[in-house]
Design brief:
Helix content: over 70%
CATH architecture of the largest domain: Orthogonal Bundle
Number of helices: 14
CATH class of the largest domain: Mainly Alpha
Oligomer: single chain
């Protein structure tokens, strides 16, 4: 059964990536900017532009260009970035660890803050704590991320001078030896504690800004799920046995209430990865989002399609892992 499930997921992943590659390819080609003309410069003659277009694989019909792109993709070749003049795969390998580190930090912050607040809001319904949690969730869903980033930059950097803005390390601090590409983890593995603290300090502002809206989602979903679970018969039986309210909530209610949270967990990973585009651009975090934003402005087709395919793969894999995790939380799903 597990093998069949994994096989179905792999086939679905291939179908999703194929559809996204087609849509991204077509949308990139209808952009009015001509990358060959941009690269060649305004003084280049038409012959030079046509020669460059041929070398970049931009000549021929859309179908011919797509066939060349897919054939290269099957060989692991995402093409050459027009803006950086490097292979797109090499650029993604360079910038992806920064975005992954930011996304994981934001997700951990969202879970560590959102889940306890949601559980407490449901356990003490209509209390002051509940009202505070609901206000926080409304605030997080209402405020646009770019505004939160600008306010965080204004308060944390310009007014209080507490948090750095831009980069993953301060000037003069050398990156740790590369193992995972995550500066915090690599610094810890190398025993460079000063570098680890510096990397954490640079991570605080973008991670909290990126997690702000996701915290609100986890608070709302957890609260609603907990309120539903707390009215089930087995909760009444547990209370009738004389168990403390803490034991009832933590041992019996929380585990079943986490299933809807797991459902949206994979979606939030994709939301955080895509949301990092805007946050990285505002806070100058040198990750995949900033790289993709610059590629879009430069009409860099290959870089845009490469980033889109990578994010789509991460999003689909995250949702598949969430489906597998259902069985660990709910024995009924594991039996089925």
């Amino acid at each position: 059964m597990i093998a069949q499930f994994v096989l179905r997921r792999l086939l679905g992943l291939l179908a999703v990536l194929a559809a996204i590659s087609v849509m991204t390819f077509v949308l990139a080609r209808v952009v009015p900017k001509d990358p060959a003309r941009l690269i060649a410069g305004p003084r280049a003659n038409q012959q030079a532009v046509e020669a460059l277009r041929e070398r970049l694989g931009l000549s021929g019909t859309l179908a011919e260009q797509y066939v060349r792109y897919v054939s290269g993709l099957l060989r692991g070749d995402l093409g050459l970035s027009f803006s950086t003049k490097r292979p797109v795969l090499q650029d993604i390998q360079t910038f992806l660890p920064a975005t992954a580190e930011l996304t994981i930090a934001a997700l951990l912050i969202s879970l560590l803050i959102g889940l306890p607040i949601g559980i407490a809001s449901a356990a003490w319904k209509d209390s002051l704590l509940d009202y505070a949690g609901r206000f926080l969730s409304t605030l997080g869903l209402s405020l646009p991320p770019f505004w939160v980033a600008l306010v965080g930059q204004l308060v944390g950097y310009y007014l209080l001078s507490l948090l750095p803005v831009g980069g993953r390390l301060s000037q003069g601090v050398s990156p740790p030896p590369t193992v995972t590409g995550f500066y915090v983890l690599d610094s810890a593995l190398a025993g460079q504690w000063a570098t680890m603290i510096n990397a954490l300090w640079h991570l605080v502002l973008p991670a909290f800004v990126l997690s702000f809206g996701v915290i609100a989602v986890f608070v709302r979903i957890t609260r609603a799920s907990m309120l539903d679970v707390l009215h089930h018969d087995y909760i009444r039986v547990a209370r009738a046995k004389g168990l403390t309210e803490r034991a009832v909530v933590l041992r019996h209610a929380v585990r079943n209430a986490l299933i809807p949270v797991l459902t949206i967990l994979g979606l939030q990973v994709g939301l955080l990865m895509s949301g990092s585009f805007l946050i990285e651009s505002i806070l100058q975090w040198p990750g995949l989002g900033l790289y993709a934003a610059n590629a879009l402005l430069a009409a860099d087709y290959n870089a845009t399609m490469g980033v889109t395919l990578v994010l789509a793969t991460i999003y689909t894999v995250a949702n598949a892992l969430v489906d597998l995790a259902y069985g660990l939380v709910d024995p009924r799903l594991r039996t089925a």
